Amino acid sequence: TNAVSSPLAAALLPAVTPDQFRERYQEAFAQNALRGPIEQGIDFGLLHHLTGDPACARMCRDVLFFYEQLVHARFGGEWCFEHMLFIYAWTWRLFYVWDLIEESDAFTDAERQRMTGLLWGLAQYVAGLSYFTGPEPPLEIRQNHSTFAALSLSFAAEYFRTYYGVHDFDLQVQRCDRIFAGQAGSYKPNDDGGGAGYCWIVPSHQLVYDLRADDERFLRSGNLRRLADYAVLITDNLGSMVEFGDVGTYSAHRRATR
Question: Who contacts 113 (Cβ-Cβ below 8 Å, separation ≥6)?
Answer without folding.
Answer: none
